Amino acid sequence: MDLKQLIEKTAEGLGFEVIDIESSPRGRLLRVFIDKPDGIDVDDCATVSNQLTRLFEVENIDYDRLEVSSPGLDRPLTKLAHFERFVGEQVQMRVRIPVGNQRNFTGALHGVEGDTVVLATATGEQRFAFDDIERARIVPKF
């Protein structure tokens, strides 16, 4: 089982969804972003952090620092289910392959059709294959 699967299985066992996992180039820093339907608080982060620390010790995973936090207001959309959940929200997306000569798009998330994400931009409706999306984040409202 790879590190990502290990982290996801552990967090899900505690009742949390892993939104994203980031690591530094040499894997010395691990950042784990978690969520649950009613939100995350400091105690939730501590619970997951303590469990992962024990797991990493047992599994002999070498790292210097572990950070566990909520995904924040500008949460990343990393799974197709995230795009379905946040229909209507403003998002910023970067695609792997340019459309025309543009890789960055901002607009309202219209929905998901199969494996295609539909985004309403200032220039009209755009469709992107989920696998072609490099990264996407919600644009927070203030």
Structural class: alpha+beta
CATH secondary-structure class of the largest domain: Alpha Beta
Radius of gyration: 17 Å
Quote the distance from N terminus to C terminus. Answer: 41 Å
Write the CATH homologous superfamily of the largest domain. Answer: RimP-like superfamily, N-terminal
**CATH architecture group name of the largest domain:** 2-Layer Sandwich
CATH topology of the largest domain: GMP Synthetase, Chain A, domain 3
Q: Unreliable stretches, pLDDT < 50, 5 or more residues?
A: none
Extended strand count = 8
Q: For the largest sheet, list the strands in their spatial order.
A: 7-6-5-4-8
Query: What is the strand content?
Result: 35-45%
Biggest beta sheet attributes: 5 strands, antiparallel
If you average the pLDDT, what whole number results?
93
Q: Which percent range fits the helix content?
A: 10-25%
Task: Count the domains.
Answer: 2
H/E series, N to C? HEEHEHEEEEE
Using the alpha-carbon principal axes, give the shape: elongated
How many helices in DSSP terms? Answer: 3
A few lines on this structure:
By secondary structure, this protein is an alpha+beta fold.
Give an overview in words:
The protein folds into 2 domains: 67 residues, GMP Synthetase, Chain A, domain 3, CATH 3.30.300; 59 residues, SH3 type barrels (Roll), CATH 2.30.30. It is of the alpha+beta class and 142 residues long. The model has no long low-confidence stretch (mean pLDDT 93). A 5-stranded antiparallel sheet has the order 7-6-5-4-8. It holds the Pfam family DUF150_C. Belongs to the RimP family. Its main location: cytoplasm. Required for maturation of 30S ribosomal subunits.
